[in-house]
Amino acid sequence: MTTQDIAAGLPGEDHSLLLVDDDKPFLTRLARAMESRGFAVDTAESVEEAVAKVRANPPAYAVVDMRLGDGNGLDVVSAIRERREDTRTVILTGYGNIATAVTAVKLGAIDYLSKPADADDVYAALTNSSGERAAPPENPMSADRVRWEHIQRVYEMCERNVSETARRLNMHRRTLQRILAKRAPR
Questions:
Q1: I want to staple 39 with a disulfide (CB 3.0 to 4.6 A). Which of 17, 52, 54, 100 is the partner?
Q2: Same domain, yes or no, for 7 and 99?
Q3: Do 98 and 38 fall into the same domain?
Q4: Over the stretch 71-91, which tens digit does the pLDDT of each residue have?
């Protein structure tokens, strides 16, 4: 089976895919896997590089890591949406929370996956028809996770301003910084 045969299963004629992640080994593996599924893959390792590639040639598909070395992946999602509204964008993150997922969807992302996501998960998210519903979670969130989600929601409402978020949560700024630096609880 050739890449043209595989690409025939993708909707539309433009199969350009921009992968944005600062984890080089993961980026390389995902790029190879997506090429084998029929995508014409381009990669970027920073917000600056990704935004430049989006301005030059906006892709039909994009997979963007939330936290990059030089900024936030949501900035890349915004740049994509400005240049091409029909781009199917998926956010990947190791720091998943409801507030950033909502923000990503409002900016135009079609899905939000937690790392480690494999190529099959990414492909399914990119090609999923919008009418399908996700299955409800088997395990409800823990109390620690609910607290984490609330902090993240307030943090996003304060436009990622740590001092303002700490004031609104009646929390010391350094305590909040430590909480934000950790991974989300299960």
A1: 17
A2: yes
A3: yes
A4: 888 899 999 999 888 889 998
